[in-house]
Amino acid sequence: xxxxxxxxxxxxxxxxxxxxxxxxxxxxxxxxxxxxxxxxxxxxxxxxxxxxxxxxxxxxxxxxxxxxxxxxxxxxxxxxxxxxxxxxxxxxxxxxxxxxxxxxxxxxxxxxxxxxxxxxxxxxxxxxxxxxxxxxxxxxxxxxxxxxxxxxxxxxxxxxxxxxxxxxxxxxxxxxxxxxxxxxxxxxxxxxxxxxxxxxxxxxxxxxxxxxxxxxxxxxxxxxxxxxxxxxxxxxxxxxxxxxxxxxxxxxxxxxxxxxxxxxxxxxxxxxxxxxxxxxxxxxxxxxxxxxxxxxxxxxxxxxxxxxxxxxxxxxxx
Length: 318
Prior knowledge:
It is built from 13 helices and eight strands. The protein is α/β, with parallel strands linked by helices. The protein has an eight-stranded parallel beta barrel, surrounded by four helices. Helix 9 links the parallel strand 6 and strand 7. The longest helix is centred in the middle third of the chain and has 19 residues, at 158-176. The radius of gyration is 19 Å and the shape is globular. It starts with a helix and ends with a helix. 42% of the residues are buried.
């Protein structure tokens, strides 16, 4: 990576689970040694809120302050923001399936004003506990392809439905938490399409997560000029600002490589391919880069040794 581009980088981060941060592995020190800027907690509010309120969470934040590391929270949030317990009393808040039946699981009815009000207010409550040091918030839709097919919602694409929720959340964050808060629009699986019917609020930034390019074998599809993945990103950058856009990659995602189960596998780190990815993103003016590093923790080091962390340090150097 050229030195000039390195100077323009705003974020070089990792996303790790609250569990990874609770087991004694010193991620802030590791991030500092690797030259990273940011650590984001994960998975959902139900995991991250207790962690941030715990002694371990307070030590984590203090350590990040000491090392000059920014703290963010990238959250699978929909099940928490719209509690599933409400379904028994108010099923109209929840998505309708293709057969016309309301379902408890997955996303909400995005044209129901009360659903959006509940989601936005609970996002505010989470934000007051899990407040990032960067002003960049992440409240993701359900990790599923299921969106609302009711008569009022069915004409909206998955991307448009996500925007309707995100616009409501960022307005509430700016009104009640911090006036310059920004919120990610997660372009991931079904939301990779360009929104057509809904305009993003000025407080939204693009978060491009090309999960499916990694394939079932966990071997990434190269980013090729004119190829599918860069074409998708280019189309989204016609709608969202380049200067705030973020790429969320999987370069260090031990949880992905091990299939989200034990036994762990050693991260198949490929510095040359990762450098090529970064160069493709940098040509598009992307200044915010981060990667999942879930399950890189004390158990991972115990299994594969201290040398197994060299990939994290090399990621920081690229």
